[in-house]
Write a structure and sequence with these properties.
This protein is an alpha/beta fold. Strand 3, helix 4 and strand 4 form a beta-alpha-beta unit. The structure holds ligand LLP.
Amino acid sequence: MNVNYKELAKKYGTPYYVYDFDSIKVNYHAIKDAFKARKSLVCYAVKANSNLSVIKTLANEGSGADCVSIGEVKRALKAGVPNYKIIFSGVGKSDEEIKQALELDILMINVESEAELFRVEIQAKELDKKARISIRVNPNIDPKTHPYISTGLHENKFGVDIDTAKRMYIKAKNSDFLDPVGIHFHIGSQLTELNPIKESSVIVADLVRTLKVIGVEIKFFDIGGGLGIQYKDETLIDPNEYVQAILETLFGLDVTVVCEPGRYIVGNTGEFVTKVLYEKNNGGKRFVVVDGAMNDLIRPSLYNAYHKIEVLNKMDKEKLNCNVVGPICESGDFFAKNIELPMTEHDDLMVIYSAGAYGFTMSSNYNTRNKVCELALENSSVRVIRKRDTFEDQIANEVEFLN
Ligand code: LLP
């Protein structure tokens, strides 16, 4: 990224995340523009990076928000996303979350089971409202991605099968408190093959046509998120081909296409910057110990995910095999294993790329480590968009010790 990493480290300390807001906007428009004249709504998947400034930047460009907790809904609203562009998904919404979502009058609640439809109806009745809903269909298609982020097979917990969906739509149509306006599928994340998405869209579009015959008019066709990005050498789905493939399945239907990209919009726009603490050798095995850790960026530990790593100003030097590890007390605390890096010195800076999605949002205070600060590059200047935690922040809710 076009920033002075060293200066930022000096000013704000390490580790830190830095995001390129100009690229975030470009990525949003790459998807939005692919829909061209077609009615569409891009709802950024807030879970990928839920910093308020990130959401606000996207809201200003016209983006909606795909949320998976009432907390995310509140973030989206606070950041300026209008309620009529917010959707609320997730397999386990509590009564309280459903109630609040109805009160906030968001575009639709995406229902993931018959039991949940029942709860939404009860909550809507109590509020004397008609709940706009969509139903998440599980098309039983293998998305060919990491099993932890695959969601479109019956063996996964998400959505309902076609027959159940039909039953639910009929129930909703006959209810005074439910308004079935949408249909939804999302088969997985970091998708690099178009075919599984297309096959799913064919199945779900067929269902929409069947529903039309029985008097259920679907207005929103929500194709979920999932577009992959390049971490290493993945071949990518072109947004235009993606949209074209979806639109081809929608013949005869007058629907607004909704999509929920997260990673595609922010993934490659963020970097995690960490400082080298030590080099050490254990019986011939070289470790580079840095000040960032799995609590800051858990993707390598959790999914064995690859993130490109570079040592600043040294990459032209001779490289040797090593593991890059953090200070946390478990062997799963690593950013890379068996990669080639130049010899480092105390205080060298290391950049971990493609960390804009599911980086900070999955971070924790494990080992009583402060969550790091987040910076934004926009129009050639850098600003803080989240301050680093302090120890006091971390203990603030431990009431027994506070007076
Ligand atoms: N919509 C739904 C219903 C989702 O479950 C997800 C992601 C998205 C949209 C956004 O997907 P994206 O466009 O970002 O692929 N923590 C994992 C990824 C988990 C994805 C969960 N759902 C990772 O770091 O790879």
